[in-house]
Fold each of these.
Amino acid sequence: MTGTNGTTNGTSKAPYPYDTDAEPNNPTVIPRDTLGTFHFTFLIRHPRSSVPSYYRCSVPPLDKITGFYDFMPNESGYHELRCLFDYLRSIRLVGPSIAGHSANEEKSAINGVHASNGATQEVEVCVIDADDLLDNPAGIVKAFCKSTGIEFTLDMLDWSTETDQKQAEEAFSKWKKKVKSVEDEDSEWVEKYGEKGAKVIRETVNANIEDYEYLKQFAIQV
């Protein structure tokens, strides 16, 4: 018999699937010791680009390919990513150093997060903004490799054949951010997805900008 307090047959047990004690402030279902076996890096993209892209995958004809038949704004994930990011910093699984930042920039970005150092070797805060990666692939990939201890080679930026290279360039060119006004974006979204779709996209974008901008301040600069 399981009670609401998490006991089974009178024996204290943590929630399924792990028979481990709850960890204060851990926003995941993964124990801290397990989190400590990973080298974390973060890839972010502006909600004005990512949200309409996600919405497009949840409506015809792409919904039959993706299997996403309902757009769920709460699955955008920016707030959850920020919670995980701050938790990892607070327990020093990443940071305090920030990849691609000077000492003064690092200090201003700390924003009062208090850490208790349990790591034996520091892992830099490594955040990549997708737009920065598209604007400067070589610089960002090189900085990423430096932060993560991976040897950088030029073939990381090269596809195996001329045809593959051209296809990749054409595909990624669609991701490049075009400077548009809010009015232009709304008009484009109405044309593509109707008034209802455009409204939910704008509301979802606005709901996630604060968390995106918070993470953006940590992004690699080259």
Amino acid sequence: MKDWVVNLTVVLADGTVIKTRQRPRKSSAGYNLTSLFVGSEGTLGLVTEITLKLAVIPQETSVAVVTFPTVRDAASAAAKVMRAGVPVAAMEIMDEVQMHVVNKSASTSRRWKEVPTMFFKFSGTKAGVKENIQLVKTIAKSHSAGDFEFARDAAEQQTLWSARKEALWSMLALRESGAEVWSTDVAVPLSRLSDIIEISKRELDELGLFASVLGHVGDGNFHESILYDKTNPAERAAVEKCVHDMVDRALEMEGTCTGEHGVGLGKKAFLLKELGVDTVGVMKSIKGALDPFWLLNPGKIMDVPSSSSSSPSSSSSSSSSSSSSSV
């Protein structure tokens, strides 16, 4: 995650090598170039060295798994945990389809109830972990939670977390010839999390395809994974519309078109819709200043301007030719 990056060594498009900052825990020296390059999806420079923060291994850790009758109940419980200020190390959600996928793939050592499920990680002191587990249990019960399992040792922690760890790979394992998984994400304010997950889940079910909701709901970020036949144009179009509707809905809720996956090629139009022409224009100006020939990941995040299509060599040739004719 970006917050663990202290500094970067970066090679710019013209070959200049820079270091974004030194190693103190905090610094107000100049622009925050570290975050700029981390968030640039490789369009501003080539990272050759990264300094990362190290975290102290906590005294105690534990994992809890909680089932819910609906995905809205699970998402509402997640938002309540965050608003209550309960310190959890991780908080993940998987709907009943995803739990079925994990069972079907037999990628873990146990079978799971095929209902919406929350996965929690706790860390801290022994007393703190014990207290936080109880707080989460109380909040979960107030949102119609069913079973509440928590690990008593390291082996149980691995077992209980295994379903979340294997989620994507379980879906990929179900692919047949011609099938593909469309995985995408958005993020919204916590106050709108249960709304968007409930609506998106309903629209996924209406597709009639194998599709699931999962994600890191502690920060309002969730993912859709849809298994579809890429050789069927109508099916692909239906999936694309479903995904685009989800992204539009996230923007209407003052969220973002991507919490983790990035803009890349597929969400450039949504970036413009989310931030506006002027803000994206600033990004283009930064790109133009650091990589005037758009050599690095051209076309990612924003389209290549037609005026930047010439290569450095052709530009220098035309420049020389122009100079000689004017002499």
